């Protein structure tokens, strides 16, 4: 299993990014979470197989139609297991 921590920059708040990401995560059957940060970025952790994580990362680089992603910082972190994918309160 692979788990990544991601910070997404751009016009990614107020455009349905987190809720669309939850649908993508459910479709790809990954676990983790996503939330807005006060600086205007979106933070997420995604865990699954390499192929599942890569599929979610590909979507994250594009985002929803109303958004504009200017960059994403991805770091591999230790897998934690768990179940489901949640939209968390803003951090």
UniProtKB/TrEMBL annotation:
InterPro entries: Acylphosphatase, Acylphosphatase-like_dom, Acylphosphatase-like_dom_sf, Acylphosphatase_CS
Positions annotated as active site in the UniProt record: 18, 36
Reaction equation(s) it catalyzes: an acyl phosphate + H2O = a carboxylate + phosphate + H(+)
EC category name: hydrolase
Listed EC numbers: 3.6.1.7
Domain of life from the UniProt record: Bacteria
Occurrences of domain Acylphosphatase-like (ranges): 3-89
Keyword line: Hydrolase
One MF annotation (Gene Ontology) recorded for this entry: acylphosphatase activity
PANTHER family on file: ACYLPHOSPHATASE
Recorded family membership: Belongs to the acylphosphatase family.
Name assigned to this protein: acylphosphatase
Source organism phylogeny: Bacteria, Bacillati, Actinomycetota, Actinomycetes, Micrococcales
């Amino acid at each position: 299993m692979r788990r990544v921590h991601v910070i997404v920059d751009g016009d990614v708040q107020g455009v349905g990014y987190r809720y669309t990401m939850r649908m993508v995560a459910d479709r790809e059957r990954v676990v983790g979470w996503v939330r807005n940060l006060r600086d205007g970025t979106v933070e997420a952790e995604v865990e699954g197989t390499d192929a599942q994580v890569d599929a979610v990362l590909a979507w994250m680089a594009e985002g929803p139609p109303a958004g504009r992603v200017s960059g994403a910082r991805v770091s591999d972190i230790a897998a934690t297991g768990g179940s489901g994918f949640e939209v968390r309160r803003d951090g």
